[in-house]
């Protein structure tokens, strides 16, 4: 279709060409003789041109610089993790796409086909991102418009947008009511607005720059409401739409998997498009491309997760730093924190629809219910607080339930109110031009406390008391959730004292010890479990009179035992304050030192999802059958060193005993009370003699007193 203006009257004609004839059909309006002359001149020129013999093959005809309106087009999109590809040095960000399939420049490098050296078989390739949805919607027809009012006979391509169907789109682009349209073309079709490509390109670019999130969301919603969704990208990162009517299309990314942190900006693409020069083509401006291949870029990444702990300062008066591993005594309170950096949130396609922590404590620990606090910071160092949430605020829910093997689970789940705030808050990104929205890339800190139990559920030794947290999150993808796992360990230990009497005849019930933590300057309090014969630590005191007196439990005719469980790694003194009569107390305190250090074993936690263990990094996306398979490929994982303990007694190394399969659990020592030295004893005869002498002396004293009394009366 070709258009001309002759003065104020629009003229247009349609050229119909077939093997047998040529028709030039004039329509509408009156025109001057001058205009008719111009049109007839054009007609004669066309007639002359078509009178020459033409011998062109079908292949040749497809390359002529004229749109073939009998054809349809297609869009093929490949999605790759260019973020990690660039980090790995296999991709150059200066690459220029040309709209044509680039096997050598892209697919062979990033793994989008079977011949790629990075391919992993049929299950997936290289850096391909699976599970991305693009949606397309035709927004304009393509017209070639000409006018004769100007002396140069201006001819150009215009794009006709339907006034009714495209109103929301135009409003979003700042082109409401036909703003900045090509007004000279108004008379062509009163139901449409005609635009130059420069206007549309500028409007889209300006909108995304000035009001990025709002415009992006509006474009994605428009596409999702009015368009057609392409199939999710497959394991090659590929999706294709075929048999597309010719025209201008808006393409938006409407669904993304979890690792995608920033959607591609919505874009316009003409079907067909004129060829352009780029990395893989040098024929720019010479032909029309009907089958268009695109390589839009995403930013990828996953949230972070870290669980750490420390002994509460309320127990010791000192503030310890948070760490993956810590030690505590039974009865102590443990401060826990879970740090999670939220993923990037750039538009509705990247909104979070789920963000849930499931925290599990081992059987030897008990939650302090009602003290969960969630803070959000704008910085990774957790210095600039944005908001603080409690359960009563309605942004989160907290629930507890019994897990397996005596463990307890606490679930902290963001409510719809909380997710809306995370996705849409303007507290951090108030400037509309910012790409991010809500609490994108902010740091979330979840804090709570737990008490170390004083019973046999507590594990002593290197095995530790593990505390695992699982973060489950979900983007807009309907198919699956993703998870991260981290853990922390609480260690506690014991002292195993064997009590002996040198002659095997002493009374163990008469023996008493006090235990003092010299590091933190307190006395240990404990409760004896009579059935087990074990003292479980229950707390501590600075008042000596309130300290527990540890009495050996008789374990045989000649042995007694003081087994104390639930001690942190510190320096202790054991003071014997009482023993059986006839035996000698210890001369001085016994010093027991329990120490920790990093062992040779790592705690390694892998990423997983609800369907089984998988890799969050799409470079290694495979169907993982077992954890063993998972460990055989490169992984992003969280790890830390586990601790191992050692002990000294009176400055000498001792071999710590195991407890229920947990190595290095209890520091052993043996205390022997020897007999005291007897005072010199006299025999029976001596005793009688002393008795007689005493009686005689007493009798003499009585006689003297009586004599004196008579003399006084006689006088």
What does this structure look like?
Mean pLDDT is 80; it is low at 1-64, 117-124, 609-627 and 629-636. It is built from 11 helices and 40 strands. The relative contact order is 0.10. The protein is of the alpha+beta class and 715 residues long. Strands 29, 30, 31, 32, 33, 34, 35, 36, 37, 38, 39 and 40 form a 12-stranded mixed β-sheet that branches. Strands 1, 2, 3, 5, 6, 7, 8, 10 and 12 form a 9-stranded mixed β-sheet that branches. α6 crosses α7 (212-226).
Beginning-to-end CA distance, first to last residue: 170 Å
Q: What sort of overall outline do the alpha carbons produce when their principal axes are compared?
A: elongated
Query: How does the major sheet shape up?
Result: 12 strands, mixed
Low-confidence stretches: 1-64, 117-124, 609-627, 629-636
Taking all residues together, what is the mean pLDDT? 80
What is the secondary structure topology, with strand pairs?
Layout: E1 2-6, E2 9-17, E3 22-27, H1 33-50, H2 58-61, E4 73-78, H3 82-87, H4 103-110, E5 133-146, E6 155-162, H5 167-172, E7 192-195, H6 197-210, H7 212-226, E8 228-229, E9 238-244, E10 247-255, E11 260-262, E12 267-271, E13 273-274, E14 288-289, E15 291-294, E16 299-300, E17 306-311, H8 313-316, E18 325-327, E19 333-341, E20 354-361, E21 365-367, E22 373-377, E23 385-390, E24 396-402, E25 408-414, H9 416-424, E26 443-452, E27 465-474, E28 482-491, E29 493-501, E30 512-517, E31 522-529, E32 534-541, E33 553-554, E34 559-567, E35 571-578, E36 590-606, H10 627-631, E37 637-649, E38 652-654, E39 657-659, E40 662-673, H11 684-714
Parallel strand pairs: 1-5, 4-15, 18-28, 29-40, 32-34
Antiparallel strand pairs: 1-2, 2-3, 4-9, 5-6, 5-8, 5-10, 6-7, 10-12, 11-16, 13-14, 17-19, 19-26, 20-25, 20-27, 21-26, 22-23, 22-26, 24-25, 27-28, 29-34, 30-31, 30-35, 31-32, 33-34, 35-36, 36-37, 37-38, 39-40
Helix pairs in contact: 6-7
């Amino acid at each position: 279709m070709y258009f001309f203006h002759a003065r104020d009257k629009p003229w247009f004609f349609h050229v119909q060409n077939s093997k047998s004839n040529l028709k030039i059909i004039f329509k509408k309006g009156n025109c001057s003789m001058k205009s008719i002359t111009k049109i007839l001149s054009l007609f004669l020129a066309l007639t002359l041109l078509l009178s020459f013999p033409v011998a062109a093959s079908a292949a040749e005809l497809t390359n002529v610089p004229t749109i073939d309106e009998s054809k349809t087009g297609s869009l093929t999109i490949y999605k790759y993790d260019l973020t990690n590809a660039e980090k790995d040095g296999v991709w150059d960000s200066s690459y220029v796409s040309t709209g044509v399939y680039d096997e050598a420049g892209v697919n062979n490098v990033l793994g989008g086909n079977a011949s790629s050296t990075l391919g992993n078989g049929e299950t997936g390739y290289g850096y391909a991102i699976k599970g991305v949805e693009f949606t397309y919607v035709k927004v304009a027809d393509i017209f070639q418009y000409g006018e004769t009012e100007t002396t140069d006979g201006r001819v150009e391509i215009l794009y006709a947008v339907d006034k009714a169907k495209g109103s929301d789109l135009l409003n979003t682009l700042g082109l409401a009511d036909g703003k900045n349209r090509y007004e000279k073309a108004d008379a062509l079709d009163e139901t449409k607005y005609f635009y130059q490509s420069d206007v549309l390109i500028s409007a889209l670019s300006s909108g995304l720059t000035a009001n990025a999130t709002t415009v992006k969301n509006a474009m994605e919603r428009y596409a999702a409401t009015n368009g057609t969704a392409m199939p999710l990208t497959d394991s090659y990162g590929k999706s294709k739409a075929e048999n597309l009517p010719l025209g201008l299309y808006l393409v938006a990314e409407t669904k993304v998997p979890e690792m995608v942190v920033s959607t591609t900006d919505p874009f316009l693409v003409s079907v067909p498009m004129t060829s352009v020069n780029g990395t893989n083509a040098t024929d720019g401006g010479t032909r029309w491309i009907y089958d268009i291949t695109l390589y839009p870029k995403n930013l990828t990444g996953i949230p972070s997760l870290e669980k750490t702990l420390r002994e509460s300062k309320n127990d010791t008066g000192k503030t310890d730093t948070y760490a993956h591993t810590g030690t505590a005594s039974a009865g102590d309170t443990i401060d826990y924190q879970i740090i999670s950096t939220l993923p990037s949130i750039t538009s509705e396609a990247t909104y979070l629809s789920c963000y849930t922590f499931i925290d599990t404590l081992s059987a030897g620990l008990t939650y302090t219910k009602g003290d969960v606090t969630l803070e959000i910071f704008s910085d990774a160092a957790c210095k600039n607080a944005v908001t603080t949430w409690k359960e009563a605020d309605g942004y989160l829910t907290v629930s507890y339930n019994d897990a397996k093997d005596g463990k307890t689970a606490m679930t902290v789940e963001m409510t719809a109110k909380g997710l809306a705030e995370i996705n849409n808050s303007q507290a951090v990104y108030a400037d509309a031009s910012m790409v991010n929205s809500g609490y994108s890339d902010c740091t979330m800190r979840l804090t709570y406390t737990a008490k170390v139990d004083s019973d046999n559920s507590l594990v002593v030794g290197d095995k530790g008391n593990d505390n695992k947290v699982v973060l489950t999150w979900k983007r807009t993808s309907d198919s699956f959730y993703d998870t991260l796992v981290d853990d922390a360990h609480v260690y506690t230990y014991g002292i195993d004292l064997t009590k002996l009497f040198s002659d095997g005849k002493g009374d163990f019930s008469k023996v008493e010890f006090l235990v003092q933590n010299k590091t933190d300057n307190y006395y240990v309090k404990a409760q004896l479990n009579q059935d087990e014969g074990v003292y479980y630590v229950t707390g501590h005191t600075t008042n000596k009179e309130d300290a527990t007196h540890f009495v050996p439990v008789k374990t045989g005719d000649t042995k007694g035992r003081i087994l104390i469980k639930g001690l942190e790694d510190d320096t202790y003194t054991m003071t014997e304050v009482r023993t059986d009569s006839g035996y000698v107390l210890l001369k001085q305190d016994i010093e027991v030192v329990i120490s920790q250090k990093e062992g040779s074993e790592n705690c390694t936690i892998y990423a997983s999802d609800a369907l089984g263990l998988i890799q969050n990094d799409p470079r290694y996306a495979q169907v993982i059958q077992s954890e063993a398979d998972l460990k055989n490929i490169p992984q992003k994982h969280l790890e830390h060193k586990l601790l191992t303990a050692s002990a000294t007694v009176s400055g000498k190394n001792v071999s710590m005993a195991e407890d229920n399969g947990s190595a290095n659990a209890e520091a052993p020592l043996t205390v022997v009370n020897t007999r005291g030295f007897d005072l010199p004893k006299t025999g029976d005869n001596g005793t009688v003699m002393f008795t007689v002498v005493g009686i005689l002396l007493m009798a003499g004293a009585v006689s003297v007193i009586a004599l004196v009394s008579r003399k006084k009366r006689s006088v």
